Amino acid sequence: MTLSHVHLLLNHVPTVGTAIAIALLVISLIRRSDELKRVSLEVFFVIALLTLPAYTTGLAAQIQIQNRPGVSDVMIEAHEDAAIWAFAFMQLTGGFAWFALWKRRRGGLARGSMLAIVLLSALTMMMSARTANLGGEIRHPEILVGGEDVAAIEAALATNPPMITANQIGLLVTDRTWLWPAFESLHFIAMCLIFGVVLIANLRLLGLFKVWSFPAVHRLLPWAALGFAINMITGMMFMTGSPGMYADNTSFLYKLGCLMIAGLSLLYTTAFEGPWWVGAGQDAPRRVKLVGAAAIASWLGVMYFGRMLPFIGNAF
Amino acid sequence: MEFAQTLQQTALAKWIGESGSLLGYPLFLFLHTLGLATIAGLNAGIDLRILGMAPALKLAPMVRFYPVMWIAFVMTVVSGLALLIADATTKLGQPVFYVKLLLVFAAVITMQVMRRRVFDDPQLDDRPFTSTARTLAMTSLVLWIGATIAGRLIAYLY
Question: Would an 8 Å CB–CB cutoff place B3 in contact with chain A?
Fold first, then answer.
């Protein structure tokens, strides 16, 4: 299985997945079902998480098929430019969904949050659909209607270039010599923030510091989420600036894999019942401890494979 | 710098820096990163709590972070020494390296001062934190952030 193949599989997540999640959200609002609302928020978070490898494998697919006959490099770039916007809005939607899930413990799912998520997810859906369509035009001429052809679309894109291209964002970090080290420093600082909170929260679940109830520890989780957001953004800057270093870098793929597990463990500790009901002085059930251990292990993996980018992979 | 060159020529330094083994330089880099994330991360947890985050969390139990932070510090120093000897001639000539050592030193001192001045109070969680505690917390955050930045810039400022 090539990374291009993985891309073709994963790209259904931000498109079909978002549509399903929106449907779930709408049904939950119609039925006034809190449980269904919660599930739809969790689904949005998971979709946002999986959009990260969907994007990265897209970079690998680009490297694999560009310059081939019958493939429009202009369309690939247009697809990537659209994808970056869809990605940004997807992460915003996922982030808001996470925050709503966190806040729910302290007083219900606020109407404001739900409205924001409905709006953001609708925008995300439109951008994902546009991205998907441009992606199709790379190699599927059968989707073009009437007298359209790829050359005409390319010409239209040339006269009407997008506001911000992926290339421009990438140039931000590669043109200014101080920006890459600055973002790397931020990446490491946020890594410390994430790891500190992850250690505290999951060591509690594993049985240390029993004097604390887990709900008290739960209040620290937004700091981990903040660190996660900062590293998602700085990470995207590195990827856009130097895609060749990451796209088919084995270490980066393992890092992403660990990141998916880490993200899921964050969702579990934030939103699921198991951790929440671990009170002061109480021992967590075995399956909760398992997730706690997996959480710490997955972040160790993220740090290890991140550090190994130049050694196991081909970065730098 | 003869001392630096002597260090770098030792068998150990050569193995770390030149063997190409994943158990050499790369492993020490990872251990250094892990140590840093642990000590700075846990210390940041304490600092944020003192500065008012997660008020339901009693601060006193966080004193149990100290043994973990010290172990992480030792791991960071040992791995740091390994990284240093493998590239002594470059590192010992970089001003930002000494800036980093200074900032780390200051951060660890602050951590220990906090241990005495804040955690030794038996009524720590019974009243609002003192301005000393808050100043120490803020200082600690700034120093760890500074140390992290200085450390990262070692790779760039020759």
Answer: no
Cα angle vertex B125, ends B119, B127, to 5°?
115
Chain segment A171-216, per-residue pLDDT in tens: 888 888 889 999 999 999 999 999 999 999 999 999 999 999 999 9
- Helix, coil or strand: residue A177: coil
Residues 6+ apart with CB under 8 A from A285: A274
Counted domains in chain B: 1
Instruction: Please report residues of B whose CB lies closer than 8 A to that of A193.
Output: 41, 44
Which residues constitute the domain of residue B119? 2-153
Cα–Cα dist B79/B36, whole Å? 11
Minimal CA separation from A100 to chain B, in Å: 17
Q: What is the pTM of this model?
A: 0.93
What is the C-alpha to C-alpha distance for residues A283 and A36, in angstroms, rounded to an integer?
29
- The angle subtended at Cα A186 by Cα B20 and Cα B157, nearest 5°, is 55
Confidence bin at A110 (pLDDT 50/70/90): confident
Structure confidence at residue A315 (pLDDT): 60
Q: Which of B68, B103, B152 to mutate to test the interface with A (most CBs of A within 10 A)?
A: B152
List the single residue in A181, A185, A192 with the smallest CB-CB distance to B40.
A192
- Closest C-alpha to A228, from A128, A99, A110: A99
- pLDDT the model gives residue A200: 97
Looking at residue B59, what DSSP letter applies?
S
Distance CA A28, CA A31 (A): 5
- Give dist(CA A138, CA A70) in Å, integer: 9
Alpha-carbon torsion angle A269, A100, A44, A233, nearest 10: -80
- Tell whether B158 is covered by a domain: no
Answer for the pair A205, A296: CB distance below 8 angstroms, yes or no: no
Q: Is A270 exposed, middle or buried (0-12, 13-18, 19+ CB in 10 A)?
A: buried
DSSP category for residue A13: I
A280 pLDDT exceeds 80? yes
Is residue A83 helix, strand or coil?
Answer: helix
